[in-house]
Design a protein that fits this description.
about 300 residues, mainly alpha, two-stranded antiparallel sheet, 9 helices, elongated, disordered N terminus, binds zinc ion, metal-binding, AdipoR/HlyIII-related, metal ion binding
């Protein structure tokens, strides 16, 4: 390392490992599973690399150190940048080239905004989960759950819009339902009453909504099936804690289930966005049957 860099490099303790150089002016200690507060103990197979007891400022600075949350933070930060760039690309290039109308623009903007909110809530939680206040940590956790609901519901907006493209009444009914669900779920999950519980509404909303309009997706069934496969495997990694349960202590920094879950969530949203573009092209190329109402 050059002399100049060495001067600014500080060292962090990496649990039982060794000292790593980091380019931040504070020392941030990492802890083992046994050393962290009870409210942080949720995965015994991740045995080391925990940040804990930090004030907000140091939580933020810990983004630049190697901890067991580094991949979780950066995967969704990059996910946010991906969906932000996709949004800009859609508005400036994809939608104008597809002859999109005002509704298409609104639908894409809402869908991608939901994905971005989901990514940022997750980044926030993984950054501030090490906060010294349990209340702050729980608030961010609630926001992370709320963000997942918003992201999933963001999938429904283009889905419903293009599924019911030729049926103005049901399109409006479903879109209004979904938009009010977004608001209801979001406010319920960030409400203090729910802060101590894990919220299951994501799982509940998922099949209820899908059942009602899956039949309309017959034309695009392979794409819908792939979407469900990604969502299903993401959820499976999330709940089973595979693979770290078979390699406790060996996947603390890379390869843990939560990291796989993060990557699959980004892949799922990306896949669904591409599917929406595909279905939009299809809808624009066909005219609606005579007995239906487009608007
Ligand atoms: Zn996460």
């Amino acid at each position: 390392m050059p002399q100049k860099l060495l001067k600014t490099a500080h060292y962090i303790e990496l649990g039982n490992y060794q000292h790593w150089p980091v380019l931040i002016p504070q020392r941030i200690r990492l802890y083992t599973y046994e050393q962290i507060p009870l409210f942080l103990k949720e995965n015994p197979y991740i045995t080391d690399g925990y940040r804990a007891h930090l004030p907000s400022k140091l939580c933020l600075k810990s983004i630049f150190i190697l901890s067991n949350e580094t991949v979780n933070i950066w995967s969704h930060l990059l996910g946010f940048l991906l969906f932000f760039s996709l949004g800009v690309n859609d508005l400036l290039s994809v939608l104008p080239a597809s002859g999109a109308n005002r509704e298409d623009y609104v639908i894409y903007a809402i869908g991608l905004f939901c994905f971005q909110v989901c990514m940022l809530c997750s980044v926030g939680y993984h950054l501030f989960s090490c906060h010294r206040s349990e209340k702050t940590c729980r608030r961010w956790l609630a926001l992370d759950y709320a963000g997942i609901s918003v992201g999933i519901l963001g999938c429904y907006v283009p889905g419903i819009f293009y599924a019911f493209y030729c049926n103005a009444f049901w399109r409006q009914v479903y879109l209004l339902t979904v938009l009010s669900l977004i608001l209801a779920v979001f406010s319920a999950q960030v409400h203090p009453r729910y802060l101590s519980k894990e919220c299951t509404s994501d799982v509940v909303i998922f099949p209820v909504c899908h059942k009602s309009f899956l039949s309309l997706f017959q034309l695009f069934l392979p794409r819908v099936i792939i979407m469900y496969l990604i969502a299903g495997s993401a959820f499976l990694f999330y709940v089973t804690k595979i693979p770290e349960r078979y390699f406790p202590g060996q996947l603390n920094y890379l390869g843990a289930s939560h990291q796989v879950w993060h990557v699959l969530v980004v892949a799922m949203f990306y896949w669904w966005h591409q599917t929406a573009v595909y279905i939009m092209h299809f809808r624009h190329s066909q005219s609606c049957p005579a007995h239906t109402t487009r608007s």
